Amino acid sequence: MKFHKSGSIIAPILKKLAPQVGAKIIVEPEWGVAGQIIFKNGKKRYFRYSSLDLNTLGASEIAKDKDYANFFMKKMGYPTIPGETFFSDYWCGVIGSRKNILAAEKYAKKIGFPLMTKPNSGSQGMNVIKVNNLSELRAALQQIFTQDNIALVQKIVSGRDYRLVVLDGQIISAYERLPFSVTGDGRKTIQELIAAKLSYFIKIKRPARLKLQDKRLLNNLKLQKLKLTSIIESGKNIPLLDNANLSTGGESIDVTDLIHPQFKKLAIKLTADMGLRLCGVDLMIAGDISKNIKKYWVIEINSAPGLDHYIKMGAKQQKIVENLYLQVLKSLAK
């Protein structure tokens, strides 16, 4: 399948599948990420990146706002990750709030380190930073506030990171997400191993928002008492990021056929409760998703789950993604 220079998978997949439902796809030619779907009855629908005319606007907007989504999920009894929101000085002035960086520091002292910081409306793991002290907290929030006026400061929960994709009451795909890491060979330095992995991502046209000098990466090395020049013994795996987003170099393991009915039911119900038809449900589970596990948390939900990395796992995954978008086209035609 030929991908546009933007790397978006939506347009080429929809173009490939459209004839099966008698539809025509018109894509804006310069960037290839926005398009119009014209069905045989004359109905027109639109898409931009992975956002499609499927979920309602209100539900989609809530899903994009992590704090609002957490509020409603918690209200309905779903286990969310404990945390608070804090604002840039500019936004504090706009809304008349005192929940600035100083307030975040007081909160951090109260609940203790380490903590996770993330933009309230961010995606793809951008500026998701683990902090271990007040200095790191300040730096992380300042970095977030260059892009977003609202930041989440959350407790860290341990477990295995999964994403389940739901469409109209059915689980379409599920995979475990593993953080970006390198495996030693006894010869190359960590820097050389990282460079080789990033080069491989470029070769297979897999976008990864990660650079060799990423502060999160360097900080993780420091905590493990390692340097970029360190040589790792053969076979030893070194995790280098705390978030497992595929867009920041994470790996994925398909678990679609292994999900315990408990988690299938959870993801489907949560999607419906949040007013969505298409949703990526991110879970942190203290155990294996194939088992009935009592301890788990909803990390967040995504009303426009990107499957760019998932589709490149293999032929089986490509078929799953194509089936998902075929079902989307059929749903949009109604």
Summarize the structure.
The protein is built from 10 helices and 15 strands.
Task: Write up what this structure looks like.
- The structure is a single chain.
- With 334 residues, the protein is α+β, with helices and mostly antiparallel strands.
- The protein has 3 domains: 55-80 and 157-179 and 242-334, D-amino Acid Aminotransferase, Chain A, domain 1 (2-Layer Sandwich), CATH 3.30.470.20; 82-156, ATP-grasp fold, A domain (Dna Ligase, domain 1, 2-Layer Sandwich), CATH 3.30.1490.20; 181-241, no CATH class.
- 33% of the residues lie in helices and 23% in strands.
- It is built from 10 helices and 15 strands.
- The protein has helices spanning 10-17, 57-64, 66-75, 89-95, 101-111, 134-144, 190-203, 215-223, 261-273, 315-333; strands at residues 24-27, 34-38, 44-48, 51-52, 83-87, 115-119, 129-131, 150-155, 160-167, 170-178, 181-183, 237-239, 251-254, 278-285, 296-302.
- Strands 13-10-9-14-15 form a 5-stranded antiparallel beta sheet. A 4-stranded antiparallel beta sheet has the order 1-2-3-4, covered by helices on one side. It has a 4-stranded antiparallel beta sheet with strand order 5-8-6-7.
- Helix 5 packs across helix 6.
- The longest helix has 19 residues, at 315-333.
- The chain is globular, with a radius of gyration of 21 Å.
- Residues 1-7 have low confidence and may be disordered.
